[in-house]
Amino acid sequence: MSTLVVSGLSKSFGGVQAVAGVSFAVAPGEMLALIGPNGAGKSTCFNILNGQLRPDAGTVRLGGRDITRLPPRAIWRLGVGRTFQITATFASMTVRENVQTALLAHHRRIWRFWESADAHAVDEADALLARVGMRDQADRPAGVLAYGDLKRLELAVALSNAPRLLLMDEPTAGMAPAERGALMALAREVARQQGVAVLFTEHDMDVVFGVADRILVLNRGTLIAEGSPEAVRRDAQVRAVYLGSGATTGGH
């Protein structure tokens, strides 16, 4: 069974059709890229999947369950993690405390405000940090981390609720080229080993064609191509609207 099944998703803002009848599925352990020009509808699609927007039409099913109109918190509880273009961490907390705070929420103990985060799930937090190569920086304040390390910390936080589906919105934005490949290779390893379905948006085509199992291409809210990286690279319509006629992998 597919982890995520999206059927006929549509959303308009005024007279602008941001997403128009989009359908796709993501399997456990699969890396699925969602690409397209600016304004193609990628962020709108993500925000619908995450519960931040409600669609005008269509359904979103997670593991067979309809989550179309659930709020973000409920969707997170059901096993959907998300990373953002801009890192969302607490600068004054240590690396470990950032993960512990997420684990408190996952374990439904965030309301116990008298319970210090630094005493909760230390081993579990350290295991997550080790998973993303950050265990040796557990005691450092998040505010002093290099940008690439912040992105890895954010991935550890996103994995704190043991997600079945991980949504990664421009995960490598602002990173150096070498760091981009390393972060996405890590995400792919997590997907493979833990059976997490990963849906990601990305402007760096080297990253997309390097790690994606399949690629979806949106243009003006419509899905214009879907398939393997090789098939999408050869698609004449994709070249015309996004990759450019002379593209191999690079391009916006």
How would you describe what is shown here?
The protein is an alpha/beta fold and 252 residues long. The protein has a domain at 4-79 and 163-243: Rossmann fold (3-Layer(aba) Sandwich), CATH 3.40.50. The chain is built from 9 helices and 10 strands. Strands 6-7-8-3-9-10 form a 6-stranded mixed sheet, with helices on both faces. Strand 9 (214-219) and strand 10 (222-227) form a beta hairpin. It is globular. The two termini are 33 Å apart. The relative contact order is 0.18. The model is unreliable at 245-252 (pLDDT under 50).
Q: What strand line-up does the widest sheet have?
A: 6-7-8-3-9-10
Shape: globular
**Beta content:** 15-25%
Radius of gyration: 18 Å
Output the helix-strand order: EEEHEEHEHHHEHEHEEHH
Let me know the number of strands: 10
Q: Which class of the domain at 4-79 and 163-243 in CATH terms? A: Alpha Beta
Which architecture of the domain at 4-79 and 163-243 does the CATH hierarchy give at level 2? Answer: 3-Layer(aba) Sandwich
